[in-house]
């Protein structure tokens, strides 16, 4: 470990070495720290932010607006950026305002070394950069701080959605925030605010739900939690529309409509941003023919003027250049790159993430200088961005204390409490898809009694002593971009906290009860995907060798055995995870076939699936008596799966997405407009339990309201009884299942939910707060420009999406709940969706009235 920068020491001795050096570098000896907050408060060198800006050259300002990627902490190391020889130059010559380590892959995975190295780098920056302005360090802590060895990885986002438990998610993410600060980082590129609408998309696992309401609630909770530590800013991403690429490929062009944007894609951002969020990361793709990074409407009219966002907007990786290489907005020349910089800044970008080499840091600085000099960009516009960046640094306390406290990290990383919370989330996220009787006694195949012999096989269990099946349990963004060590694990390599399913099975059952026949999983070939088709790549990831086949053939007929086949997907990310099909790869289907052919009809076959998408369908599931969809449950996953198989955890997760029968049905979502509804294999909200729940006495209070107004909600109550023999948790989800309007209402939509725990025979009256904002639609003709309203009509509400039991909420007059107003950037003054003479008349009446 290098030099220490323990802040306790620093304050104890009138400034330890780091503090002293900082003060010397900044001349801040007279300024003990920040006084107040804002552009007119003193931050450094006795200067206010505004004075500091006035003192900076345009080049320095451009430096503050950059976030280059670093691969190493060595300031003398060469970087892949043209015109800068070392990382050190980024600070001394270019005065870079921020750096990032992309892909959950910092230069060291050792948490203590990480914080010490970031402090070293900060010291170098303060000593060598023009005004000694502290940088902030960005990292992908997207499912927990799963970028350091031993960290508690939270269940991936698709599991979070299945819990419908934003409160527990919030608790878990508060720990993430503390670890981010303790490891010396300041910005996490989270929360991901993405709907799960297209399972072909390689980032489907990063979405929370196909329900706008559930995504909004969880995003609000995560955004709030990730900022609980004062030294950390969240970065809600990717603004906006990223999750619906037209062909399902990551970053492909998005075709959507104004109505779809305003009713479903944007509200979760709007809700999450109410909790702050110092930064926002922009969608790499294009929306309706405009790259998001070039959209003044998205980044300024909407984000700033409509939502009131005051923080820093950040590009995604290499996205200035993507306007050239993918979007063909400009030629691939110096001029083209300069135009890309101008366009992004004019649209509203404050900080550019520079990775991938398209535009180098030095080029960026030069372009900004030239653009200002030529009058193509005003210096005021540059100052505006720099002010936001410096204010964020001030909020994070960086001017006051630029160094992280190194003493906290060892106790925090992977501590027992965080493992407990993550495990509880994993338990709540277990979705039991199917549970049929395997034998003539008619009893469902699960739970197991614990006395059985088990034959365990499939790519999701670890072979040969190397626990690389932990990869499938965790997914991408875990100690590396594509998952741990890129999928080629080494003995003794870095691991998140937690146990595998096999670890836990071995703890719970005797060695004689478990027979394990491994099959092959090798994800280290992920990088070959651009040259292989998705199909070829997947086929080469999973193998079922002749030797494995003959082992399975001889083990399978054991009459007493229950066969547990662990299938699914290796970790993946971004374009490397895009899918051409949803069935399981051939080698896995072959494993299932071999089991079926070599066992008697009454041998229970249990499927456990670790995957980031709905993989597998009837071809495979028809052979299984029970199927547990475990998603990517991460640290607590091994425990949650085994406890569920053994009945110690009664599954209560509900699918956050509709499980398509075939890839050709995609998109299939419960909240589509009627006419778009295919019959899914498992509907949104599906999830079995080992007990049964019944509903009675559904009602809504009040049953009638006038015109809904801001923040208004109503309450649905229902009596829920546990009618089975086991205690269990249950998510009561309230849907609007029918209503009529001037425009189409979604077929069904979630308006509220509540998790409840009931003992056998117990009845509880569950009250669910119904969010009227979830009923808002955009009225008016096809362009979809009018003010969002809850329309005046009868709304049928149900607790079971297909249930007969409904209650009616009557809305007597239309009204806006979340935000009155037409589409921002338009002069549709009266909000009727048309820009016409009536708007001019409204302005006339308004001015007359004002007189
Ligand atoms: C991803 C972002 C991520 C960034 C930094 C990009 O490729 O789209 O979500 O935060 O890399 O790792």
Describe the structure.
The protein has 851 residues and is an alpha/beta fold. It has 3 domains: 12-412, Glycoside hydrolase, family 3, N-terminal domain (TIM Barrel); 427-651, Rossmann fold; 693-820, Immunoglobulins (Immunoglobulin-like), CATH 2.60.40.10. It is built from 26 helices and 28 strands. It has a 6-stranded mixed beta sheet with strand order 13-20-19-18-14-15, with helices on both faces. A 5-stranded mixed beta sheet has the order 22-28-27-24-25. α4 packs across α15 and α14 (334-347) packs across α15. The longest helix is centred in the N-terminal third of the chain and has 18 residues, at 111-128. The radius of gyration is 28 Å and the shape is globular. The termini are far apart. The model is unreliable at 1-36 (pLDDT under 50). Residues 102-103, 140, 189, 237, 316-317, 574 line the site of beta-D-glucopyranose.
Based on the model shown, name its key terms:
five-stranded mixed β-sheet; Immunoglobulin-like; globular; 30% helix; 3 domains; single chain; alpha/beta; 851 residues; TIM Barrel; six-stranded mixed β-sheet; binds beta-D-glucopyranose; 16% strand; disordered N terminus; Rossmann fold
Spell out the blueprint of helices and strands.
Layout (H helix, E strand, L loop, with lengths): L6 H6 L4 H10 L15 E3 L2 E2 H7 L2 H7 L1 E3 L18 H6 L5 E4 L9 H18 L7 E4 L17 H7 L2 H17 L4 E2 L23 H15 L6 E2 L23 H8 L1 H7 L5 E3 L4 E2 L2 E2 L4 H11 L5 E3 L4 H7 L8 H14 L4 E3 L6 H13 L5 H17 L13 H4 L3 H13 L2 E5 L17 E6 L11 H5 L26 H8 L5 E5 L1 E2 L12 H8 E2 L2 H10 L5 E8 L17 H12 L7 E6 L7 H4 L4 E6 L5 H9 L47 E9 L2 E2 L7 E10 L5 E11 L10 E10 L4 E9 L22 E5 L7 E6 L25 H14 L1
Parallel strand pairs: 3-12, 4-5, 5-6, 6-7, 8-11, 14-15, 14-18, 18-19, 19-20, 22-28
Antiparallel strand pairs: 1-2, 9-10, 13-20, 16-17, 21-23, 23-26, 24-25, 24-27, 27-28
The protein binds beta-D-glucopyranose (BGC).
């Amino acid at each position: 470990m290098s030099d220490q920068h323990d802040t306790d020491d620093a304050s104890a001795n009138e400034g330890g070495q780091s503090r002293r050096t900082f003060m010397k570098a900044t001349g801040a000896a007279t300024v003990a720290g920040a006084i107040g907050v804002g552009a007119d408060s003193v931050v450094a060198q006795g200067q206010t932010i505004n004075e500091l800006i006035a003192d900076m050259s345009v080049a320095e300002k451009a430096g503050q607006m950059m976030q280059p990627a670093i691969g190493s902490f060595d300031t003398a190391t060469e970087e892949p950026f043209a015109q800068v020889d070392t990382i050190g130059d980024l600070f001394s010559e270019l005065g870079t305002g921020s750096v990032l380590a992309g892909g959950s892959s910092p230069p060291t995975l050792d948490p203590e070394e990480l914080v010490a190295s970031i402090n070293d780098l900060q010291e170098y920056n303060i000593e060598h950069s023009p005004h000694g302005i502290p940088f902030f360090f960005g990292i992908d802590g997207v499912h927990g701080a799963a970028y350091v060895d031993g960290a508690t990885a939270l269940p991936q986002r698709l599991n979070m959605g299945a819990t419908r438990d934003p409160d527990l998610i919030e608790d878990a993410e508060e720990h993430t925030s503390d670890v981010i600060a303790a490891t010396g980082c300041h910005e996490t590129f989270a929360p991901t605010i993405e709907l799960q609408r297209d399972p072909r998309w390689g980032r489907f696992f990063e979405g929370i739900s196909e329900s706008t309401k559930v995504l909004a609630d969880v995003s609000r909770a995560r955004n709030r939690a990730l900022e609980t530590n004062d030294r950390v800013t969240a970065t809600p991403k990717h603004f906006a529309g990223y999750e619906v690429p037209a062909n399902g490929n990551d970053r492909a062009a998005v075709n959507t409509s104004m109505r779809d944007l305003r009713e479903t894609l944007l509200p979760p951002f709007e809700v999450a941003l109410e909790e702050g969020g110092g930064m926002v990361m922009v969608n790499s793709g294009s929306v309706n023919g405009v790259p998001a990074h070039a959209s003044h409407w998205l980044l300024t009219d909407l984000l700033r003027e409509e939502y009131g966002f005051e923080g820093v907007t950040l590009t995604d990786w290499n996205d200035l250049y993507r306007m050239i290489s993918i979007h063909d907005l400009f030629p691939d020349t110096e001029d083209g790159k300069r135009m890309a910089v101008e366009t992004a800044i004019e649209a509203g970008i404050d900080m550019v993430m520079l990775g991938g080499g398209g535009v180098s840091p030095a080029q960026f600085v030069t372009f900004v200088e030239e653009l200002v000099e030529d009058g193509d960009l005003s210096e005021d516009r540059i100052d505006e961005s720099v002010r936001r960046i410096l204010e964020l640094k001030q909020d994070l306390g960086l001017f006051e204390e630029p160094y992280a406290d190194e003493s906290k990290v060892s106790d925090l990383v992977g501590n027992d409490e965080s493992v407990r919370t993550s495990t509880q989330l994993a338990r709540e996220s277990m979705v039991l898809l199917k549970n049929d009787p395997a034998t003539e006694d008619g009893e469902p195949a699960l739970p197991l009694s614990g006395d059985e012999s088990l034959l365990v096989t499939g790519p999701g269990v670890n072979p040969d002593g190397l626990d690389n099946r932990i990869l499938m349990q965790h997914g991408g963004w875990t100690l590396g971009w594509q998952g741990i060590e890129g999928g080629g694990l080494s003995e003794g390599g870095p691991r998140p906290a937690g146990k595998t399913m096999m670890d836990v099975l071995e703890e719970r059952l005797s060695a004689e009860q478990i027979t394990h026949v491994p099959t092959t999983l090798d994800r280290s070939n992920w990088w070959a995907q651009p040259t292989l088709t998705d199909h070829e790549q997947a086929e080469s990831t999973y193998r079922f060798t002749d030797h494995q086949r003959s082992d399975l053939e001889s083990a399978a007929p054991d009459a007493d055995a229950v066969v547990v086949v662990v299938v699914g997907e290796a970790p993946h990310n971004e374009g490397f995870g895009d899918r051409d099909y949803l069935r399981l790869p051939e080698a896995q289907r072959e494993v299932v076939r071999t089991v079926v052919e070599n066992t008697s009809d009454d041998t229970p076959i249990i499927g456990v699936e670790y995957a980031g998408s709905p993989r597998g369908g009837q071809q495979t599931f028809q052979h299984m008596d029970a199927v547990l969809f475990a998603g990517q449950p991460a640290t607590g996953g091994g425990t949650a799966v085994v406890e569920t198989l053994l009945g110690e955890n009664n599954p209560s997760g509900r699918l956050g997405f509709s499980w398509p029968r075939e890839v050709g049905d995609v998109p299939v979502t419960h909240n589509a407009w009627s006419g778009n509804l295919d019959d899914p294999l498992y509907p949104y909200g599906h999830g079995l339990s080992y007990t049964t729940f019944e509903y009675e006495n559904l009602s809504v209070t009040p049953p009638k309201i006038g015109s809904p107004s801001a923040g208004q909600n109503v309450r649905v109550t229902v009596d829920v009884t546990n009618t089975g023999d086991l205690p269990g948790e249950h998510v009561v989800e309230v849907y609007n299942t029918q209503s009529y309007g001037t425009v189409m209402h979604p077929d069904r939509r979630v308006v509220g939910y509540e998790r409840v725990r009931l003992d056998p025979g117990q009845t509880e009256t569950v009250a669910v707060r119904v969010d009227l904002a979830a009923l808002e639609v955009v009225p008016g003709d096809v362009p979809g420009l009018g003010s969002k309203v809850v329309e005046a009509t009868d709304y049928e509400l149900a607790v079971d999406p297909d249930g007969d039991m409904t209650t009616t909420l009557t809305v007597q007059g239309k009204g806006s709940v979340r935000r009155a107003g037409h589409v921002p950037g338009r002069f549709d003054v009266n909000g009727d969706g048309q820009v016409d003479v009536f708007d001019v008349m409204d302005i006339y009446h308004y001015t007359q009235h004002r007189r």
